[in-house]
Every structure is written in structure tokens, then in C-alpha cells.
Write a structure and sequence with these properties.
single chain, 347 residues, alpha/beta, Rossmann fold, 2 domains, 6-stranded mixed sheet, 4-stranded antiparallel sheet, 11 helices, globular
């Protein structure tokens, strides 16, 4: 293609580190040949590495313009969030040592990607699952949700044996998943904010019990309540969810399950593809949900953000290899656990 201008919107969101490096090489080659490139990303290290000039946007307005060499990371963060800090918030509410265990899994195994995963999460606790891409974190979630077959292992939910044979049964039991790919797996992009929040909540919105028709008024009340509770930025719940930013789309998925009063929330890469400001809001929502008594499990390959968790379980090659007490678990501690296991296996 003989293009003289190329716009790239979050091009590295689903790429591996090696693929990112190759993309950056191509971008530099294109720029060197005279092609103008507009590069949109929430990853500040990429912006700093690639850009000759930077424009920062906040709430649809320009919050700053900088030339290469005339700004620092702090300037970008301040423009995006209004704060100079990049550090994730630590949970302000400690987990009660006597809090009941909401969910427990022992030696979970699907025979393919998950081989021996064990952990427990208490009421009001935020548990992190740390692991590199391909470690089996997401596959663990699909088993808990009943979306894939479990070969062996035991799961206990609210003190009772739990072995869902379908997603429908898992959801009915109070388990909810916010998936990694919200656009393709969690949202109907052409439908409204209201209808996306209402998905999975039809029974609660019926005109009366035993009658299948949904009350539009109840759907309005529920969706409006979730917009307020989760601070979803939208002019109305009647606009397509595709018109919202990535962070607000993610909050809509949260709202669906919060409205259903799910007690075990599985969050897979909850801040992927959203900017720093939206990440902070999502972290606040996660902490609020835990403080209300929900058990929250957060899986992320961005290890630094797992500092918000009360505890972190490290998964490598489909196996639980370490448990680190938090909050304030460092990326260094998690990487140490990951690479120590890999070196022991190779020895």
C-alpha cells in the first residue's frame, strides 16, 4: 500500500513482546521513508520510545503538547489523570482474618493448559493471579465458569461442592467473568448501554414473576443505578456502547454482574486497552466491590497492577508455584517466583 499517512490505534494491545519489537522496527522504517504516523496508545513507554511529538487527550480535549526531549513521564501522567503518580492504589480495607472462604479450588486440571492450580479467596478479598501470557490464567477462569471441561480437581463455592456443567449454571450460582476481550466476548457493541447492562438480568426485570416480558422501567432503573455506582461516563444509557471509551465499556461489563449481585467476580486483564485515568477508576471499582463483601479474583499479565491485591498467587505453565502476601506485592517478587520455578524445571 502506497500510504503517506497511517493511523495506528493501540496496535500492541494483543501482541507479544517479540511482535511489539518487530512492529516498532517497521514503524521506524516507515517513518524513515517519509510516511507520517499517528500512534495512539495508553502505554507511555511506547509513546516515549517512538514519538517525535506527543499530544495528550483527557475527556475529549487536548491536555498537553510536547516535543521529544522536552517532557518526562510525569508530564504525561499529569495531563491524563491530573495526578503525577503512576502507583496503583493499595486496598484501604484489610480482609477480616475470620472472613469465610467464598471460593476454593484444589488441583484443578483440564489436561491441556491447566495442570495443577490451587487457591482460595475469602469474602471481601482481592486475589491476584500473576503469570505471563500463556501461563494458564485465562483457562483457569473458563473452567471455573463452566465454559471448558475439567479433567480433575475440586471446587467449593460458599462451602458446597461446585462443578458447573455450563456457563448458565455458573452464573446462576453467583459466578461472573469479565473477560479479556470485552468487545467480542462481553459486549454487543451496536446495542445500547442499557441493554448491555441488562443482559443476564432479564429475570429480575420481568414485569411480574412467571411472565416473560421485561419491564423497560426496571431496566432503566437498573442501568441508571449502575452508571451512577460505577461512574460510567455517558450522556444517556440509550446510546450504543460502541460510543464509549474503552474504560467505560469495561465498566458496563462490570455493571452487568454487579446488578446481578454476583458474589465471585473473575476479572481477566480488566485494564487491558484502557488509559491510565480509566485504570484508576477500574481499580477503585474493584476495591469498592470487595469492600461490599464480594470475592474478587484478578488475572493480569501486567504484574505491577497486582499490587492492589491482598494476596497474589503465581501461575506458571498451568501450575500454582507460589503465593505472596500483600498488599503491595512488587513486580520483582512475582517475576522472581516465575523465573525461579522455570530455572528449577530446567535444572
Amino acid at each position: 500500500v502506497d500510504a503517506r499517512f497511517i493511523a495506528m490505534d493501540e496496535p500492541t494491545a494483543a501482541l507479544s513482546e517479540t511482535e511489539c519489537e518487530r512492529l516498532f522496527e517497521i514503524i521506524r522504517e516507515l517513518a524513515g521513508s517519509g510516511v507520517a504516523i499517528a500512534y495512539v496508545s495508553h502505554r507511555l513507554d511506547e509513546i516515549e520510545e517512538l514519538s517525535h511529538r506527543v499530544t495528550v487527550f483527557k475527556d475529549g480535549e487536548v491536555a498537553g503538547r510536547f516535543d521529544k526531549g522536552n517532557y518526562g513521564r510525569r508530564d504525561l501522567v499529569l495531563g491524563i489523570t491530573g495526578s503525577e503518580s503512576l502507583a496503583p492504589r493499595l486496598p484501604s480495607v484489610a480482609v477480616d482474618a475470620d472472613a469465610p472462604v467464598t471460593f476454593e479450588v484444589e488441583h484443578l486440571n483440564d489436561g491441556v493448559n491447566v495442570h495443577d492450580v490451587s487457591f482460595r479467596v475469602r469474602r471481601g478479598e482481592i486475589l491476584g493471579l500473576a503469570g505471563l501470557v500463556g501461563s494458564g490464567r485465562s483457562e483457569t477462569f473458563t473452567q471455573i465458569l463452566g465454559a471448558s471441561k475439567t479433567l480433575s480437581g475440586e471446587m467449593i463455592l460458599n462451602g458446597k461442592p461446585y462443578r458447573p456443567t455450563s456457563v448458565k449454571k455458573a452464573v446462576a450460582a453467583g459466578v461472573a467473568l469479565v473477560p479479556e476481550e470485552r468487545r467480542s466476548q462481553a459486549l454487543v457493541m451496536s446495542d445500547t448501554v442499557k441493554n448491555n447492562i441488562s443482559l443476564g438480568n432479564w429475570k429480575r426485570m420481568r414485569i411480574w414473576r412467571g411472565f416473560g416480558m421485561v419491564s423497560d422501567h426496571k431496566a432503566d432503573l437498573v442501568s441508571d443505578a449502575m452508571v451512577k455506582k460505577l461512574s460510567i461516563k455517558t450522556s444517556t444509557t440509550h446510546v450504543p456502547v460502541s460510543t464509549l471509551s474503552g474504560g467505560n465499556q469495561q465498566k458496563v461489563v462490570f455493571g452487568r454482574w454487579v446488578a446481578r449481585d454476583s458474589k465471585l467476580l473473575l476479572l481477566d486483564e480488566p485494564t487491558r486497552g484502557v488509559d491510565i485515568g480509566a485504570r484508576e477508576h477500574i481499580w477503585e471499582n474493584v476495591e469498592s466491590l470487595a469492600a461490599e463483601g464480594n470475592a474478587v479474583v484478578v488475572a493480569s499479565s501486567e504484574l505491577a497492577e497486582l499490587a492492589l491485591c491482598h494476596r497474589v498467587v503465581v501461575i506458571v505453565e498451568g501450575k500454582t508455584v507460589a503465593e505472596i502476601q500483600g498488599p503491595g506485592v512488587t513486580e520483582k517478587e512475582m517475576l522472581h517466583a516465575i523465573y525461579n520455578y522455570q530455572m528449577e524445571e530446567e535444572a
